[in-house]
Write a structure and sequence with these properties.
Helices cover 48% and strands 12% of the residues. It is of the alpha/beta class. Strand 1, helix 1 and strand 2 form a beta-alpha-beta unit.
């Protein structure tokens, strides 16, 4: 990605880059996770592609080298998850994320970067990214968190997450204090607080549903109600606002 001279993971960490073992059956199409790789270095994209394709439920649907190509490929392929580099030629990865999310709000985007500055993380979240990891992330953690995003969860590397939530909370405080609409002060129900606590713990919609013995559809309905009452647009802002108000830990 920013450094085209090496893979984001040491080559020695890759498993043997071979086809799937004989006898392994493919998962049903609806269970596969379709991934789009966006990076301006072909060698890096190929390294990621070979690594991810070893997972039986992962399909690398396409690759892109710049923001324009990423938007074109995203609209054509409609991937479930996009792995996005920040440093792209021309339009950067954060702006590319904003462009794609405006057209494909259901597609999850994980930023992969060398940058650990808080500003980059904040801007990525504001642009619509639901994941932000540094390139020193382990192969196992990357694979696990691609699945988390695909299940409706989010993931920011722990060393960066608290700063981002505090920043979003401070922005939400100013907005709520100046709002006179009744929806901004409407209390959450006990069930909505339960759902929000599980979201704050990093659980996906599926995991929340299992924990509360309700359907994923019901979880989504609760989240829509929570967003409306707190006047926020996504899970990260809802958690940050709830933390500030002492509703969740």
């Amino acid at each position: 990605m920013e450094d085209g001279s090496r893979f984001p993971f040491p080559v020695s960490r890759f498993p043997l880059l071979t086809s799937k073992r004989k006898g392994e059956s493919n998962l049903k199409k609806e269970e596969n996770i379709r991934i789009l790789l966006v990076d301006d270095h072909n060698l890096v994209r190929e390294g990621f592609s070979q690594m991810l394709e070893l997972e039986e439920d992962f399909i690398v649907a396409g690759q892109a080298a710049n923001a324009d190509e990423a938007l074109e490929k995203a609209l054509e392929l409609k991937p479930d998850v996009i792995l996005m580099d920040i440093k792209l030629p021309g339009i950067n990865g954060i702006e590319a994320t904003r462009m794609i999310k405006s057209k494909l709000p259901e597609t999850e985007i994980m930023i992969l970067s060398m940058y650990d500055e808080e500003e980059y993380v904040r801007e990525a979240v504001r642009a619509g990214a639901t994941g932000y990891v540094l390139k020193d992330i382990s192969q196992e953690d990357l694979i696990r968190n691609i699945r988390v995003l695909n299940s409706g969860g989010s993931y920011i590397q722990p060393s960066l997450a608290r700063k981002v939530l505090q920043d979003i909370a401070s922005m939400g405080k100013a907005k709520i204090q100046t709002s006179s609409r009744s929806s901004s002060i409407r209390e959450l129900s006990d069930r909505e607080i339960e759902v929000l606590q599980h979201v704050a713990d990093g659980k996906s919609n599926k995991e929340v549903a299992k924990a509360l013995i309700i359907s994923e559809k019901t979880v989504k309905a609760h989240l829509r109600s929570i967003f409306r009452k707190l006047e926020v647009g996504d899970r990260a802002q809802a958690v940050a606002t709830a933390m500030r108000k002492g509703l969740v830990e």
